TrEMBL record:
Transmembrane segments: none
Keyword Cytoplasm: no
Organism of derivation: Funneliformis geosporum
Protein name according to UniProt: Phosphatidylglycerol/phosphatidylinositol transfer protein
InterPro entries recorded: Ig_E-set, ML_dom
Keyword match Signal: yes
Amino acid sequence: MKKFIFASIILAMISMINSILIPPHPTAKFFQCVFLFPVPVLPNITLSPDPLVAGKLNIFTISGKLDKDVIIGDSFVVEFVNREGLSPLFEPFTMDICSRTGIKCPIKAGTALNISEEVLVPADLPGPDVFAILVSIGDIYDKSSVGINEVDPNYHPIACGIAVYDN
């Protein structure tokens, strides 16, 4: 019996030491990106898996109610940017929201929205201390002044969230 109690105490101590020495995996923490655009944060943004796995498909999910209508031409955008200066590291992922099966536009402000999309995480994604993840919804094309395939340099999304990984 003494050996059993001793073994239990040793196992408990090893478990406590491991929890102290091995930090948990960092997770993405999304914040408002008001310093980029004067917009509300996306109500809820989740990643699966979290943390991201470079070179693999990752599911980005946004859900909640937006303060503005989602209209034809609005896109769901995922971009990996440099944490310092927020310059793009790769070509952004864009998906036309209204062209998705089961989504009817316009989606009025205050209506529940739930979109999950698989996004390929770049294989050469730098370490988490170098990049941030920018997720937004809006019209990335200014059809009045540029061609349909040219990204509008004055892009102002209707919703936006930015995440960094911190230990």
